[in-house]
Specification:
By secondary structure, the chain is an alpha/beta fold. It is built from 6 helices and 4 strands; from the N terminus they run H-H-E-H-E-H-E-H-E-H.
């Protein structure tokens, strides 16, 4: 919610060329329930989930399983079959325009995030995911970097400026 609030602050006084909805959903860990009902109700053309991903910059983590993701190295933009390429292209364009660092994570299957529920809603939704590196995920001592949060805010704010009602997200 902090990221969404900051994005809203950044774009509040701007005229945007698309209708934008922000949702805070619930029960992601037990079936993506909030994302399912929100996406079904809103019927978006595109949807973006914001979540965390495993930072792998500490001993004992298996980089071959989770990739090489570091704290303080920027937001993570996942790529894979369940992520829309055109949404990611706009993320990359936004990162370049704002000069923000980002990392790429390969997802061979479903992301396990609200992005999955968004993607398969109704007749399908072009979906993107921005992930904040999180060290020691699912423990009492999770750690994230404010710099990674700032990069997420900047990319998402610029994405909102770049997209318009005519943007085509058909991935070919």
């Amino acid at each position: 919610m902090f990221i969404i609030a900051k994005v809203l602050e950044e774009i509040a006084n701007e005229h945007l060329n698309a209708n934008i909805y922000f949702v805070s959903s619930v029960q992601e860990e037990i079936g993506l329930r909030g994302a399912k009902t929100s996406t079904f109700s809103i019927r978006p053309d595109i949807g973006i989930a914001i979540d965390v991903t495993h930072a792998t910059d500490y001993p004992s983590v298996k980089k071959e399983e989770f990739g090489d993701i570091k704290l303080n190295n920027g937001v993570v933009i996942p790529v894979g079959a369940n992520i829309n390429k055109k949404v990611n292209d706009l993320f990359f364009k936004a990162a370049k325009k704002t000069k923000v660092k980002f990392q790429i994570e390969a997802n061979a299957c479903s992301t396990g995030t609200d992005a999955h529920a968004i993607e398969i809603s109704r007749d399908g939704v072009a979906t993107g995911l921005l992930s904040i590196p999180c060290r020691y995920m699912h423990s009492p001592n999770e750690i994230v970097s404010f710099n990674d949060i700032r990069s997420t805010i900047k990319i998402l704010s610029e994405f909102c400026r770049l997209v318009n009602d005519d943007t085509c997200f058909v991935p070919y």
